[in-house]
Amino acid sequence: MPSSHLPFIRRSRRLAAALLLLLATVVLAACGGSGDDNSQAAAPSDGPATLAPPNATVYGEILVRPSGDVEAGIVTAARRMLRVDDPGRELRRLFDEQTDGQRGVFTREIDPWLGSTIGGFLLIENAAQTESPDGAVIADVRDRDAAQAAIDRLLADRDLQRGGTYEGVDYSVDSRDDSWTGLIDDFFVVGTAEGFRAAVVASRGRSLADEDRFTTAADELADDRLAWAYVEPAGIARLISDQAEQQAQQLDPEFRRAFEQQQDQIDRALGSEPITASLTARADQVVFDVSSGSAELPQNEGDGAVAIGDLPGDAWAAFATPLLGDLISRTLRQAGQYDEAARAVRQLTALDLDSDVLGWLGGIAAFVRGTSPLDIGGGIVIGSGDPAASQRFVGRLERIVGGLGLPTTPTTGAGRGFQLKLPTFPQPIVVLAQDDKVVLGLGVASTRDALDPDEKLDDTEPGKSAIASLGDDFKPAFVLVPEPMITLLRALGLDSDPDFQSALPYLTAYRSIVAGSKQDDGRTTGRLTLNLQDPEGTPGDDGDGEGTQTADVTP
Predict the structure, then answer these.
(1) At the N or C end, where does the chain have fewer CB atoms within 10 A?
(2) In terms of Cα–Cα distance, which of 208, 54, 38, 191 is closest to 117?
(3) Cβ density class 325-347: b for 16+ within 10 Å, e for less
């Protein structure tokens, strides 16, 4: 790795540590601080965004003194996820560990002056040249005298040195990283020198809070959000472009062209509209959203699409992809790698990459089910946009497997396929093409149910509730129900494993984990939902089996 990247990495590590401390501060304040009456995130015109410059590439904000439903949500969610009766006390301990082991640092040095919101911004425009971005962390102050006293103590302890005055604002300097610290109006600000100056200028004139793009993005977020972030994709694209250009100068022309083509893809993927992210914590659910205005996104509808909700209802883990055939083909061609990939596929399998594989390939879904070694099952479902071509593919695949010396047996019933019995697998691997699906299943029953399940995941509990928790119009892409998974792990003998036992209380915190996306008014929102168990909830020990297997895979 080039040595010029090391300062950026070191700065990034400090930033990551700071963010962890900020997240701890949220729960510390909610669990033990004296909250204000403000139960919702502050409007941009009143919060730290008033000190962020209008050209900020990234802005983030955390509500650190929630009250009402927001406070109840974060406290209950923390209690359930951390599996402790007093999450505030536990996080205070962790906070103290991160501050050289000094007990009571939060209560003594931060709580007296900390207001309701902490924000921060990054200026990435010149990051490629300066090796690290400029920016600042901005904390709302509820007691300016207490905040000034905290700075004075840092000066007395020589953790800070007096710096000077910029535009009438006093600042101090940390000689370890040259950061500036000071009070700007009613905000406690720590940042790089350029970031601090930018915050002073924004406080005196136009700020990010005055930009329509920013305020519109903030208005579209949930009122009970705990944290959120705003990203200008143009700034990110410029940084990637500058870094790629620096790297490309050292490469031959062919690789340089590949860099340029990748940059075009990055620009299209990022789009021109702001990207937002938000975190909401409720008593029984934690939700993380990312929204983008990108116009070029993989399609998840059309010939060959596979819906996760159509998988077997007893699946406890499942995922589904968008349509892949055209996406893979376009990506390989844009990168100039299609011909090489086609030659490799033909040499290894004698298949034509276009007509035999990508031409019919749709979406891919997979699932796992079962709660014991005897009934474990699962499968991969591949959607087909050309059933005749996909059936020919299965026939060719059977010949390839046979050519490797592995014995195969034709399936009976509808469709075209074969099964392969491996010594290390308790059930045969079945490959079957029927109508617009190709299934690779572990066991005959899983293969049969993947084609046409008696009960579907989106019609059967707990899958139905898990998928519904995403919200209206969201299409699920991933579902995990931990309880049957834990039962399976216990059946496999992991109860005696100390690592499993230590992780078990945290695994049992979740009823389900679900991810999905939706498109609305030209914007795409991705959502991750963590549905929480009641603290007393424990995973069950029983599970339903697949039943007796037969060689007939007719649905």
Answers:
(1) N
(2) 38
(3) bbbbbeebeeeeebeebbeebee
